[in-house]
Amino acid sequence: MKKEKTEDEVVHLRREISLLPAVCFIIGTVVGSGIFIAPKGVLMNSGSMGLSLLVWALCGVLSMFGALCYAELGTSFTKSGGQYTYLLETLGPLPAFLRLWVEFLFIRPSSASYVSLAFGRYVVEPLFAPCAAPTLLVTLVSILAITFVVAVNCWSVNMTSRTQVTLTFIKMFALVLIVVPGVIALVKGQSENLQNGFEVESLTLDKLPLAFYNGLFAYAGWANLNFVTEEVINPNRNIPLAIIFSMVTVTVFYVLVNVAYYTMMTPAELLMSDAVAVTFANRALQGLALVIPVLVALSCLGGLNGSFFGSTRMLFVGAREGQWPPLFSMIHIRRHTPLPAVLLQYPLVVLMIITGEIYELITFGSFAGWFFYSLTTLGMLIHRYRFPHHPRPFKVPLAIGLSFTVVCFFIVGLSMYSDPWNTGKSCVLTLTGVPVYFLTVYRFQLPKRLKCIYDYCSIHLQLFLEVTEQEVQTY
């Protein structure tokens, strides 16, 4: 007789993410390199310290609105996959496929390459200061970082979550190291730089949106937990709690960090600095000045690990829904990780790190990202109208959903107005997925010989990677 498998032997993604790792996945992805880079861009385009602090607070509120919308979506639709799943359920298969297409064509590889290179620079450059660091060494360290992240994500979900918790506590320690000296200096009366904080003479309305772009870049990553809904313990409770606690914490810390910067640096000094946190450390933490670059590097590593963990689940779910090759919906028989989905991104990220051609793709990705945020929350509102009795354990106020959707479309429209060339190229890259969808998903047609080759390769890759399809439904 055939022996039945025990719970531990059945191949499926397990619910191993409790509330603390859920919080750390959000905070750890949001707090990456942005808070150490973006203050310069926010100040430059807002025109004054006071307005820049207001921009940071408003960006936090806007990100919170978006995160609350995703909390409703995450508890309404119990599948993993984040935006892909929500677009599939609310607006149909074509928008969902386009989201999947742009994610793995240029958004995720380019952002992962950027963060990896930021890690490499912060690790290598202090060793060669004041001289320039060797480009080859920065590249090699960056590749080591992405290799480490891929290895951890392939090994186990439990190790990935533990790594994320550890790195999140380290990066929060880095923020505390910045906030405490700034608050102490402020209490002692060192507030000269903030006394005329709301001068508006240098403010121009065409630059203010750019200030918000820089601020929102630093808050990016709040939707990360929704990619792994099927692996969260008690998602109806833990997803909303993790989102609310994380975004409130990040917003408070971001504002306090910028206040600390301003107590130690004048606007001119901050604008002249290419690494604001390092400049701050040299002035306020002279004994720990060499520690800050290391902490910033580890912060980048945490952001890389969190975003990599989440985005691979989008590909996994897309393959499970039949919009990507079935191999990528398979799970390692012992590690219980979506191994093929994790490995797919690695070669393209390494290639981008080596070539360095990522910055233009990041511009493209910003437009595509906000466009799909708009579509996702619009789909939420349409679904709420069409199916008012659909179970929604967490329901965001209608005003919040409408406000966030309108602002997202405004940001998209502003991008088309202010930078039509790059925005147009982003639209073209996104629309290249339309013929691919109709040829490979809507009406799959492959010559018999090519189909035999495809099946042969798939079977042997499955055997080589030791993966199989999920044996139980987890949603």
TrEMBL record:
What keywords are annotated for this sequence in UniProt? Membrane, Transmembrane, Transmembrane helix
Highest taxon of the lineage: Eukaryota
GO cellular component terms listed in the entry, alphabetical order: membrane
The main location class comes to: membrane
State the InterPro entries in the record.
AA/rel_permease1 (IPR002293), AminoAcid_Transporter (IPR050598)
Annotated membrane-spanning segments are: 20-39, 51-73, 85-107, 127-155, 167-187, 210-229, 241-264, 284-304, 337-355, 361-382, 394-417, 423-442
Mention any Pfam family matching this sequence: AA_permease_2
Q: Where in the cell is it found?
A: Membrane
Q: Name one GO molecular function term.
A: L-amino acid transmembrane transporter activity
Keyword Nucleotide-binding assigned: no
Q: How does it sit in the membrane?
A: Multi-pass membrane protein
Q: Which PANTHER family match?
A: AMINO ACID TRANSPORTER, CYSTINE_GLUTAMATE TRANSPORTER
Q: What is this protein called?
A: Cystine/glutamate transporter
Organism expressing this protein natively: Channa argus
Lineage of origin: Eukaryota, Metazoa, Chordata, Craniata, Vertebrata
